[in-house]
Amino acid sequence: MRKYELVCIVHPDLDETAFKGVVEKVNGWVTEFGGTVEKTDVWGRRRMAYQIRKQREGQYVLMNITMPAVATAGLERNMRFQESVLRAMLTLVA
Question: How far apart are CA 12 and CA 9, in angstroms?
Answer without folding.
Answer: 9
